[in-house]
């Protein structure tokens, strides 16, 4: 029996409000199609436009609202780059809610240009430390140092999530590191992954240096299942992996913790397209699909996935990045009506 959930929705800025609006149409259709499912959507402010108004990109009212919900759907948000500007809203939320794993699936989709038709991999990236830990110093003019924090506890925690995922998939984990150079930090990460592997005898494990991995993602992407990596390596590899299966318009990500999770498109706020009703909302729609999976609503998740696949196969309604001329909202409406069709 489908359940009842409170969902925080942060439209963000740039193209965020447009892709989120299209996704809300899809969620409303899923709710209508699966009798009994109740999604209480609570909209909150966050992102670039909040900085002037509140002095932060994640106001405390929004944080309070997140605490009262079961999960968060987040649109992209612009992060100002000037020194002293607040950290990215995504980073703030990940830290506040202990969302330690960034999970980014990459799968070949019908009628979408892909390096190979059989790619089906997931990148699990450690989300809280590594080189994105956020401690950088200018020790003297022209000389800077950044801290790359790697702990056994955080590495084992993210490794466990990677192995749990692999058990439900093709039962293989690839540990990505650069231990030949970063002997201490990546030594800790590698040891943690292989230690956790001992508890999962049904899952095979291997290891690849990050530079070789960048090449093998192009050469033989269909050979991988779950890839686990530290923060920056995972970030870079997951953008590469998104591109080999059709680009940022289709790439979704989940930020998972022990008690809460946030779902978002991998892409940013693409300011040059803001307000043009032009970009692809499928990345955000697929993020919403991951959210339904996280909530245990597998039928609803399957409905969204199936509707996206059908719309792609038909090829009539697609945005510019997939060679079409449809608008963001037309894609959302088409997927929503496909959901009603599938369920009837
Ligand atoms: P971006 O992902 O916003 O855009 C890069 C290009 O990718 C766009 O110009 C566009 O050609 C294409 N693109 C992005 N989304 C698309 C979509 N849905 N459909 C079709 N094409 C799409 O990257 P950027 O320009 O480097 O970053 C812009 C801002 O977004 C920056 O401030 C950055 O910090 C921020 N950002 C935020 C997040 C987040 O909120 N999680 C993630 C990445 C970047």
Summed up:
The protein is α/β, with parallel strands linked by helices. The chain has helices spanning 16-33, 48-54, 60-67, 89-96, 152-167, 185-197, 210-219, 231-244, 282-294, 298-314, 328-343; strands at 4-10, 38-43, 71-74, 101-107, 120-126, 136-140, 143-146, 172-177, 204-209, 226-229, 252-256, 261-265.
Identify the CATH architecture of the largest domain. 3-Layer(aba) Sandwich
User: How many alpha or pi helices?
Assistant: 11
Small ligands present: nicotinamide-adenine-dinucleotide
Distance between the termini: 18 Å
Radius of gyration: 20 Å
Largest sheet: 10 strands, mixed
Output the structural class: alpha/beta
Please give the share of residues in helix: 40-55%
**Domain module count:** 2
CATH superfamily of the largest domain: Isopropylmalate Dehydrogenase
Q: What is the approximate shape?
A: globular
**Count the strands?**
12
Beta-strand proportion: 15-25%
The level-1 CATH class of the largest domain:
Alpha Beta
List SSEs in N-to-C order: EHEHHEHEEEEHEHEHEHEEHHH
CATH topology label of the largest domain: Isopropylmalate Dehydrogenase
> Strands across the major sheet, in which order?
2-1-3-12-11-4-5-10-8-9
